[in-house]
Hints:
The chain has helices at 2-6, 8-30, 62-98, 100-114, 118-129, 133-159, 163-170, 175-183, 188-211, 223-230, 239-269. By secondary structure, it is an all-alpha fold. Helix 3 (62-98) crosses helix 9, helix 6 runs antiparallel to helix 9 and helix 9 packs antiparallel against helix 11.
Amino acid sequence: MKSFFRNPSLAIGVTIVTSTVLAAIIGPIVFRTDPLSIDLANILAGPSRAHPFGCDALGRDILARILSGARLSLSISTVVVAISLVVGSLIGATAALSGGRIDNLIMRGVDIVLAFPGILLAIALAAILGPGLIDLVIALTAMGWTGYARIVRGEVLTLREREYVLAAETLGANRSRLLMRHILPGVVGPLAVQATFGVGGIIGAEAALSFLGLGALPPTPTWGNMLDAGRAFLLVAPHLTTAPGLAIGFSILGFNLLGDGIAQKVGHRA
């Protein structure tokens, strides 16, 4: 517990991430206002006791939409990171264990994907596939798996030269056993750091795509399309963009601080 508080990045990151996750899970249950309910009497209404974050151009409660958007954003980010981690880890491990031409071929393919800016690649794929949650996950996954592939390949190349791995190989352990029992456990720390940073990055990327109209279709509330809808009223009703903007910023900050804290602990143990 003392080491937890000695690491301010970890402590603050855990606090923000926990608050965000609890808001996404419990918030819509506690705050029962329908995020899709239109109230013409409260169009562009400012923050009040009944509507703490105010209302949008259709009189819909912004707090309810923020909480609903948090659930969607975290769900998409978790799914994208999970798929990217599995795919990238398998590709990176395959390249490292195969070596030679196969390794060179796989990593050149990774380099080709990395040659394109991630967000531009996601925008291009989302534009081709069209708006929708499944297409959004595919587009975001396409930009996320390469980082995991490079990390796993580098770690596997390092760990396979360790004495305990060489000893297991000498005793007749096959490639899959070496990977699952002796190598991958040593990759967990770096992967945890990358995945934590990845969630924050995907939250920002998902918001950007939704802002451009390439994410979930309205009236489904997302932080990105809330920003897009509120920019037309920036001067008369700034709360329309302030609330989702702060939600995006704090959630990304929380995951980045959490990743930094985990990185410090992993580095310290190493």
